[in-house]
Predict the structure.
Amino acid sequence: MAYFDPTSSERRGLIVFCLALLLSLGVGCYVYMQRSDEPASTESPSPGSVQRPRRYYARLARKVETFDFDPNEADSTALLRLGFAPYQVRGIYKYRAMGGRYHEPDDVKRIPGMTNELWERLRPHVRIAHRYQYVEVEEPDEARPMQHDADAAPAVPRDTVRYPVKLAEGSVVSLNDADTSALKKVPGIGSYYARRIVDYRRRLGGFVSLAQLQEIEGMPEGVERWFTLSTDSVRRIPVNRATKNQLVRHPYLRVYRARAIWDYRHNVGPLRSIDDLRRLPDFSEEDIRRLQPYLDFE
């Protein structure tokens, strides 16, 4: 049996090789540990130096875009692209899951966390589909006699446009009783604003002040002088019996104030008076002043 019997020079070479191998492994481990334990520098990098990127996490910046959208149908990806925060997207989804809908662009402004910067950018791009908008009830015009005889009256030329006769100076109409035909006789009000007045009156439950006309966007100034006001027919909301949908429909309540009333009824009990609303952070003194004529606490 042969045995390995290295010479003295071979033994020295083997020892040198093992020492070199151990030294290279030790240097590699030391460098790796130094890089792993090195704290993040708080000083600005010197000119010309290369800053090593941090390895422990990376957050990608979201690219904000602006485009037309319907808050009732936009998915989470589109909402995030528009600049909504993740918690706002979750709130929108939860609201829609509960049956809530955005009926007009201003409803988007009431999303929790909405900032002026975000609202000013998105406002021109809110598009509410017709099926989500409130129904505009147009009352029929005054009946006109049908002419069966072509010779009974002269024919109106095809290029002639019929305009409604406007009220004479000093004449007035009842704001809470007038239909669209009567409203169109008021100077400055045509078919569009006549329908808007009737629709807003229905949603309010009746006007309690002539100044409420200016709450309709674009309403001509000074039209109040053509109206009289009687509040006998104003419809009140039974606060303690109304459903959530009935509360939401009122222009002065909408989603968040209606939800606050609903939660108070279920967590505390019936509301006894207007003073109970002052306990809720969602109601300011101005909100309470406007709502008081429309609430019934019985």
About this structure: Residues 31 and 154 are 104 Å apart (CA to CA).
